[in-house]
Structures are given as C-alpha cells and as structure tokens.
C-alpha cells in the first residue's frame, strides 16, 4: 500500500452555540481510503462535527483542511464540489420524486431545482440527457434499487430508503463520504447489506467517515475509531484499542 495521505484534517476545531461548547479543540486526521468511525454518547458533538466539515456551520475556532486546502467555513455548495458528500440522520429525500429522479437531481449538478429546467422537467418537456440516465441506472443497479426506480422513496422500506440516500450522495461523485447514523432503524439483514455497501464504496476509492451507534457495525467495519465525549476527542485508535480505553468505558457508563 502507498503511504497514507490525509484527505481530511481537522485542526483544533471548536464550535460554540452561545454558552454551549458543542466542540472543544477537536483535532483528527482521516487518511484517504480509510473507513473511520465516529462514536460517542448522545450530545457529544458528532453531528456538529459533520456540520462543520460539510460547511453547514462555521466553526468558532480552528481549521478544516481537505487534502492540503484550507476549507474552513467554505459553503456546503463549494465543499460538495470539492468532493464532500453526506447523508443525514433523518432522511432528506425528495418525497414527491421517484427514486430514479432523486438520483438524477443529484447527478445533474447544475442546481436544477433553482431554475426553469426543473419546471420543464416536471412538465415532461425537458429530459435529462442519455449519459445521465445511464449513470442513474448504474447507481440504481449498484445499490440494489433497480426494482424501486419508479417508486417514491416514502413507499419503500426504511432500509431501502437509506440505500437511496447513500446512492444519492454517491451520485455527487465524492472523494469523502460522511454517513450520519446510517444503521439507525435498520434490521439485522439491512445492517449486513449496509456493511457490504460501505465496503464497496471504499473499494471504489472513496474515503468514508461514519457516525454510528451500532457498535458491532463500527467494530467490524472501521479501521480506526474516534471517540467523542462532551465535545472532545477522548480516544482515537483501532476498534480494539478504543474499546478497552478506560476513559471510553467511563464515558459510556455515564451515558
Ligand atoms: P451528537 O451528534 O453527538 O448526538 P450533536 O452534535 O447533535 O451531538 O450535539 C452536540 C451539542 O451541541 C448538543 O448539546 C446539542 O444540543 C448542541 N447543538 C447542536 N447543534 C446546535 C445548534 N444549531 N444550536 C444550538 N445547540 C446545538
């Protein structure tokens, strides 16, 4: 393997909401090609960290680097173009569009929703070009969604909706994919499928950072795990290392 190169470097990031210190001088580095887990009790700052990295929040202090570029407080739009894609804890799919159209919207990066093409598209006057449609079909197939292409996401089982959200994030062709609790609400079989999907995403060259409460999944999937508690990094290492760290055991007992 070539020497590990950082794709994401978080340097002393703090995020305060009035008096509340959601993140306190967080530093961590994610190498290209890694599957990194982020765990921690509720309220420990995990989603806030994703919000900072994906540009939704401007950190109170500290810097965020993507590869070597300082991306601190770049807009979500710019960060998406630079290769960061994410999913949300609560699904955010377009409810009235079919699964295929949800993917087409993401594949067509020219902000289709804000212009007339969307109206024309909805009216059936304008169609996505063949290459985009072919790419959508490829994504549908890759994520086991071909049979659901014409369904509205809301009609589908929850685990399938989660796959749609991941497929949609992948439609942006990211280099770094942030997954916020992707296993929440999934049954055992769906968790197993999710695990395969994350591995295949990494195999395609995408770095994955995953916030997850399902410890079995984190332990089997992630090479390294970063543990947050009260907005601080309290441990960082292999799953086995962090699982036996006394400060981690203590943080979870207090949860
Ligand atoms: P986790 O994802 O680990 O459960 P969060 O990052 O969601 O934790 O929250 C960390 C802390 O920051 C919580 O106390 C939460 O209430 C607070 N917080 C998160 N976002 C905001 C916000 N936009 N405004 C005020 N407080 C926030």
From TrEMBL:
What region holds the ABC transporter domain? 8-255
Highest taxon in the source lineage: Bacteria
Subcellular location per the Swiss-Prot or TrEMBL entry: Cell membrane
Annotated coiled-coil segments of the chain: none
Q: Identify this protein by name.
A: Metal-dependent hydrolase
Native source organism of the sequence: Rhizocola hellebori
């Amino acid at each position: 393997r070539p020497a590990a190169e950082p794709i994401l470097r978080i340097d002393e990031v703090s995020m305060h909401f009035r008096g509340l210190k959601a993140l306190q001088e967080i530093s961590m580095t994610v190498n290209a090609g890694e599957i990194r887990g982020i765990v921690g009790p509720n309220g420990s700052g995990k989603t806030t960290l994703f919000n900072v990295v994906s540009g939704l929040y401007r950190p109170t202090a500290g810097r965020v680097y993507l590869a070597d570029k300082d991306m601190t407080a770049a807009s979500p739009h710019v960060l998406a173009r630079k290769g960061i894609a994410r999913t949300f804890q609560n699904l955010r799919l377009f409810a009235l569009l079919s699964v295929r159209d949800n993917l087409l919207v993401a594949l067509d990066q020219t902000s289709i929703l804000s212009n007339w093409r969307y109206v024309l598209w909805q009216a059936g006057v304008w169609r996505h070009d063949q290459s985009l449609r072919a790419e959508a079909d490829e994504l549908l197939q890759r994520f086991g969604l071909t049979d659901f292409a014409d369904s509205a996401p809301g009609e589908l089982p929850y685990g399938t909706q989660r796959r749609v959200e991941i497929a949609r994030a992948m439609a942006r062709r990211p280099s770094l994919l942030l997954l916020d609790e992707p296993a929440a609400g999934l049954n055992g079989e769906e968790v197993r499928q999710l695990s395969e999907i994350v591995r295949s995403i990494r195999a395609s060259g995408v770095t994955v950072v995953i916030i997850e409460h399902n410890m079995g999944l984190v332990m089997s999937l992630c090479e390294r795990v970063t543990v947050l508690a009260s907005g601080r990094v309290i441990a960082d290492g292999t799953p086995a290392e962090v699982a036996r760290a006394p400060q981690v055991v203590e943080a979870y007992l207090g949860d």
